[in-house]
């Protein structure tokens, strides 16, 4: 009955072309005969390979994440999703798969679709999304981030400052691959005290220079010109005088300020956070060391 209902529905809707998964290929002769028996001209049929997961099993809505709503909630942009889906079993001309919709429409030919099953690679989708995020104008990125920031529970609502986020947005835009990552990148700017990652703290503060660099950097804060270049310059001089690398010496400062070892550029973040709050958090970090 399903096949009959399907054929009748397609006839009523005046369907001329049918593109579907290859698993429906066995149904085609029966449907072809039904079309003819009902006095209608059969459509042109095309069957494309199925999508598979990491285990190379057919994607299943009961087992795999297949709902577009889930990806949208995770911060996947519509244009990035469309672009990625179009590359499953097909590729645009040239050396890049990141192309506008208009180019895909112009280039796509059904006969160019690969005959092998296409792997739905979530990591590759995230990479596509990161490219699309970085290609956005700053204003567009801030607008896209607004719903995520409004719905997050990463900080109390009354502590969010749109002007502060606008300053941090350029630092964040180049470092996230989904919009849902944004709160975790900027939460330290809107919390009274940063949430300290214990593993990051223990690893970073075990360095024999950790206490000294926190003390000396904090001592320089009251008089330094408050911009990221000056802040970086102070630590560069300290680092060179101790025969260390900047990547190592900034880690204790980053953890004391943000609670984590990764995030937006440190010195730009300090500039946004402000002198008074930076001094307070460095003092809290030193006190936590005991």
TrEMBL record:
<protein>
    <submittedName>
        <fullName>Unannotated protein</fullName>
    </submittedName>
</protein>
<comment type="similarity">
    <text>Belongs to the class-I aminoacyl-tRNA synthetase family. Glutamate--tRNA ligase type 1 subfamily.</text>
</comment>
<dbReference type="GO" id="GO:0000049">
    <property type="term" value="F:tRNA binding"/>
</dbReference>
<dbReference type="Pfam" id="PF19269">
    <property type="entry name" value="Anticodon_2"/>
</dbReference>
<dbReference type="InterPro" id="IPR020752">
    <property type="entry name" value="Glu-tRNA-synth_I_codon-bd_sub1"/>
</dbReference>
<dbReference type="InterPro" id="IPR020751">
    <property type="entry name" value="aa-tRNA-synth_I_codon-bd_sub2"/>
</dbReference>
<dbReference type="InterPro" id="IPR014729">
    <property type="entry name" value="Rossmann-like_a/b/a_fold"/>
</dbReference>
<dbReference type="InterPro" id="IPR045462">
    <property type="entry name" value="aa-tRNA-synth_I_cd-bd"/>
</dbReference>
<keyword id="KW-0067">ATP-binding</keyword>
<feature type="domain" description="Glutamyl/glutaminyl-tRNA synthetase class Ib catalytic">
    <location>
        <begin position="4"/>
        <end position="126"/>
    </location>
</feature>
<keyword id="KW-0436">Ligase</keyword>
<keyword id="KW-0648">Protein biosynthesis</keyword>
<dbReference type="GO" id="GO:0006424">
    <property type="term" value="P:glutamyl-tRNA aminoacylation"/>
</dbReference>
<dbReference type="GO" id="GO:0004818">
    <property type="term" value="F:glutamate-tRNA ligase activity"/>
</dbReference>
<dbReference type="Pfam" id="PF00749">
    <property type="entry name" value="tRNA-synt_1c"/>
</dbReference>
<dbReference type="InterPro" id="IPR008925">
    <property type="entry name" value="aa_tRNA-synth_I_cd-bd_sf"/>
</dbReference>
<dbReference type="InterPro" id="IPR020058">
    <property type="entry name" value="Glu/Gln-tRNA-synth_Ib_cat-dom"/>
</dbReference>
<dbReference type="GO" id="GO:0005524">
    <property type="term" value="F:ATP binding"/>
</dbReference>
<dbReference type="InterPro" id="IPR049940">
    <property type="entry name" value="GluQ/Sye"/>
</dbReference>
<feature type="domain" description="Aminoacyl-tRNA synthetase class I anticodon-binding">
    <location>
        <begin position="141"/>
        <end position="286"/>
    </location>
</feature>
<keyword id="KW-0547">Nucleotide-binding</keyword>
<dbReference type="GO" id="GO:0005829">
    <property type="term" value="C:cytosol"/>
</dbReference>
<keyword id="KW-0030">Aminoacyl-tRNA synthetase</keyword>
């Amino acid at each position: 009955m399903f096949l009959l209902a399907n054929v009748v529905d397609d006839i009523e809707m005046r369907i001329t072309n049918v593109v579907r998964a290859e698993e429906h290929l066995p149904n085609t002769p029966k449907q072809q005969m039904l079309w003819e028996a009902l006095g209608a001209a059969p459509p042109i049929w095309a069957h494309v390979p199925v999508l598979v997961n990491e285990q190379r099993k057919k994607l299943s809505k009961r087992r795999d994440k297949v709902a577009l709503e889930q990806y949208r909630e995770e911060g996947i942009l519509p244009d990035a999703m469309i672009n990625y889906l179009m590359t499953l079993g097909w590729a645009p001309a040239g050396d890049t798969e990141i192309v506008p919709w208009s180019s895909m429409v112009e280039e796509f030919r059904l006969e160019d679709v690969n005959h092998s099953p296409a792997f739905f690679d979530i990591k590759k989708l995230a990479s596509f999304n990161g490219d699309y995020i970085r290609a956005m104008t700053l204003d567009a990125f801030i607008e896209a981030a607004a719903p995520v920031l409004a719905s997050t529970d990463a900080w109390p609502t009354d502590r969010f400052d749109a002007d502060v986020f606008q300053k941090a947005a350029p630092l964040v835009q180049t470092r996230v691959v989904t919009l849902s990552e944004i709160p975790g990148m900027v939460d330290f700017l809107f919390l009274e005290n940063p949430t300290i990652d214990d593993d990051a703290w223990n690893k970073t503060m075990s360095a024999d220079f950790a206490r000294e660099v926190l003390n000396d950097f904090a001592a320089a804060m009251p008089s330094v010109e408050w911009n990221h270049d000056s802040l970086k310059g102070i630590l560069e001089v300290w680092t060179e005088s101790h025969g260390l690398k900047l990547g190592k010496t900034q880690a204790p400062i980053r953890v004391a300020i943000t609670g984590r070892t990764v995030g937006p550029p440190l010195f730009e973040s300090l500039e946004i956070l402000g002198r008074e709050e930076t001094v307070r958090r460095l003092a809290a970090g030193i006190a936590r060391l005991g």
